[in-house]
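Contributing new records

If you add data, match the layout below exactly. Sequence lines come first and carry their own label; structure lines follow with theirs. Keep one chain per record. Anything else will be rejected by the validation script.
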Amino acid sequence: MKKSWPTEQLVNLCEMFADGDWIESKDQSVDGIRLIQTGNVGEGVFKSRDDKARYISEATFKRLRCTEIFESDCLVSRLPEPAGRSCILPDTGERMITSVDCTIVRFNTQKVIPAFFNFYTQSREYLKAINSQTTGTTRKRISKSKLGEVLIPVPPLSEQQRIVAILDEAFDGIAAAKSNAGKNAQNARALFESHLQSVFAARGEGQVEKRLDEISTFSSGGTPSKTNVGYWNGDIPWVSGRDMKSTWLSDSFLHISQSAVDESSTRLAPAGTLLVLVRGMGLAHGAQITELMVPCAFNQDIKGIHANPSVIPRYLLFALRNRINSSDSVLSNAAHGTLKINSDELRKLRIPVPPLNDQQKAVNAIDLLAAETQRLESIYKKKLAALDELKQSLLHQAFSGQL
């Protein structure tokens, strides 16, 4: 920050600096006073998340002696990601309180403009200061007292107003550019999925529909003993759910030995085998199917599919992605909120099987479009990264006095 600017601890800049209220599930109701939670606190923005809104009744508000919060109050989340992020409360049209993991920051506006602080919380300098005070191993957090000790630059109010005006205009432009880049990336993916649908909706000469179990065989995976160190010091890739990608797989994070294959329930699958994730959170985004480019073993959350000579494995890969994601019966809920693929329903899936030369033409066309889609997505990701870097550059200039 600019050396000539004075700094003060955050707590000393506030008319109110207090944590929210401890609200248990049993205290909540279907309407009443809105409970604002850490999930509503974005990085400099308020996330309405109206579909997940929680409330307490007026009676509960009085019984628990809750602290009401108001438009223009700042909320700081003491939990990641990242800890210390803030937002300014808008007028939601509702009375509001907040949860205990949010700190209410109501500024003395003769010292700090809330929007100036809100921009500062997005800077690397501030986040570095917060990170140095966080505790916890699995989930980092900062205590209210440590948050209050964080030093905040306090230039004259006129300078704060000038900086806020500049950043407001610049960030609005960046937000619009990011929105456009995101929409373009979505459009590229939608175009690919639409093409995939059209390929398998068409019915060419000589094409027939067959059940998956008529054109392929299946195999199951397993996990070698974790206590046998020798099993995990080999050169055979061993695939688990976390290794699954949506197109093909060439390697994995873990490797096992030949003795692990010979002496456990896991089996070696040849190159060209399709692997389908049949259980796990990864299915929330649709079917996870990969094509093995090298021989691999795999665990019990995955099923191997081996195409017979009438089907090109890569054609079957795309056909399965299309069919599973459009099926109401194959994908279902399992225990503990995870998802699973019903193996019996998977076997019964109807797959369009044209002549081999038509399969290869379809694969070639899909691969070309997939490559173009990935190229466009890469461009849009780079644009988004560049826009994020531009934001940080502007913030650095703002709080080092260079704007």
